[in-house]
Structure formats: C-alpha cells, structure tokens
C-alpha cells in the first residue's frame, strides 16, 4: 500500500492562482483525518465530506491516521475547491488510485456526500494557472466548459467514481467543449430617448473619451434611463479584456457553465451598499462592484445617499485603475478600470 501521495491544486490571491501541494501520509496512531496548513473552516470541513463520499462509493479508509498537509503551510487556504485534491491524494495514499495518476495535473472542485463533484468559484483562473504550469486540469464536469477556455488539457468528471474508472482505464472521460461565447441581450439604445439633446451629447462624449459623468436633475427627468444606455455606446470587449473580465466573474462565482460575453459589464449597486460591497472585501476578500464593472460601467444612482465612507473608498481605485484590499495576513489586488456614471437630484 502506498502510504504517501501528493496532489497539486491552487490558492487564490486576488486573480493570481498560486501552486499548492496537498500531501497525504498514512501513519500509525489514533485513526482519523487531520488537515493542517492554514486552511479555513471550509477546508477543515473537507474531511467530513470526503469521508462520507468514500463511504458512498464503497471505499474503506484503512485503520490509521491520515495526515493532510497543504503546502506551503504559511499561505492561507480558503474555499471548497480543496475537496477534490484532498480526496484524490487520499485515494492514491491508500492504493485506490495508481501511484502516478495525479502526476502532471492540477485538481480543483468540491466533493458531495454522495461522491458527486460540485463546482467551485475560480475554475477559469485555476485552469489558466494549470496551463501556465504545463499541467492538465481535473475539475467537476459542470466546470469543464469554463475551464476549456484556458486552452489546456481538461479532465472534467461528474463524480469520484468516474475519475477512478478513468485513471484505471475502465472508461476514459471525454474532454469538454468550450462554453458558448454568447451575445447578451442588446443593451438599451440611445435612440429610444426623445429630447435631452444636451444630456445625450454629454453621454456620447463620455463614452468616446472614457470620461466619468454625473447627471443632476429632478426625479423623472431621465437620468437613470440615460445612464443605462451608456454600455450600448461602448465597443465590444477585446479578447484580452474578455479574458480578464471573465476571470474576475469566475472568482466571484458569476459565470454560468462557461458562457462568456463580449458585452461590457454594467453594475448598478443600491445606495445602501457598504464599502466592502463596492471595493471588495469580506472574509475571503472577494471582488467588489468596482472590480466586477472592470472594463465597463459602474452606475451609482442617488449618489448622495451612498455613505461617505463608501464614496471615499472609490477615490484611489478611480485614479489607479486597481483596488488593494489589505488584510493582516495578506494583501489582495483586483483590477478596477471603470467608467463611473452617477445620478443625483438637485440639492
């Protein structure tokens, strides 16, 4: 029985996917599964999901202590995508998979209690990182169309059992096809607006020169209607912009079955949005509205109703085109090159 095995996965620092080794060793001592390496609550709970998944597919864990180390141990690990590399490394360690099955591959995905593989945010940047390392990418079947945009070798499986059959030569998995490059519904057109010639001219100048714009007028004057037509004046995303925007939306969990669009983002958060919602933050330092509007339009309706703290937090990102989220143990940078449109009533 092979008592030690290694699987490769990634940890996200902003859009950067850093290489992480999942090392599993079967030792003597009190039976159990121990996960070390600075993982968060979702990572520590992986042992129960994996244990239940093994029972569902009829795989017995031998008596002994399974130690799972996520290296480098000083890098914070967050998310459920560590389930699959932990499960596969454990299977290799106990002899359920060939010893060399995981060589040359990055593993990514969540494991269900029945052994099925579920999607996790960030499949596209993780697949891009795997391609950059010259490795294949193993992921849940539902993430296959998204990961296929990386151009690398993708192994997309519906369950742990299908991966076992694939590696043992029982039933090879077919490579997935790329998700659709869809043409989203046409944005509202400026031709629908009657009158407002001065405001429409200002909107055209803002779109042509990538200038921020503020509409001031009484309720019902058409401020929001004009701002919503700004994306229709902007050109389609270039290939580089499309990839960058899609990676951001992938990390935020907003890509559906790998469908990408060249339509520029339009984000319109409510005026009750917090500073963290606008610029990013939270426990996992996810991208905020200003980053999700990257290469597109961020529209702030009822501008004076936003908190002063939230508006002040937008100053530096608007100047630099990126937002830095500082935490005690790490710093995360997201791109935030936007066209800001705002509307307000007269004082």
> What count of domains describes the coordinates?
2
Radius of gyration: 24 Å
Which fold name is given in CATH as the topology of the largest domain? Answer: Ribosomal Protein S5, domain 2
Distance between the termini: 76 Å
Alpha plus pi helix count: 13
CATH class placement of the largest domain: Alpha Beta
- Kindly report the spatial arrangement of strands forming the biggest sheet: 1-2-4-3
**How does CATH name the architecture of the largest domain?**
2-Layer Sandwich
What shape does the CA trace take?
A: elongated
How would a crystallographer describe the biggest sheet?
4 strands, mixed
Poorly predicted runs:
none
**Beta-strand level of the residues, as a percent range?**
15-25%
Helical content stands at 25-40%
In short:
Helices cover 29% and strands 24% of the residues. The protein is an alpha/beta fold.
Commentary on this structure:
The structure is a single chain. This protein is an alpha/beta fold and 347 residues long. The protein has two domains: 4-167, Ribosomal Protein S5, domain 2 (2-Layer Sandwich); 182-344, 3-Layer(aba) Sandwich (Rossmann fold). It is 29% helix and 24% strand. Strands 1-2-4-3 form a four-stranded mixed β-sheet. A four-stranded parallel β-sheet has the order 11-19-16-13. Strands 5-8-9 form a three-stranded parallel β-sheet. Helix 2 (46-56) packs across helix 3.
Features:
single chain, 347 residues, Ribosomal Protein S5, domain 2, 2 domains, 13 helices, elongated
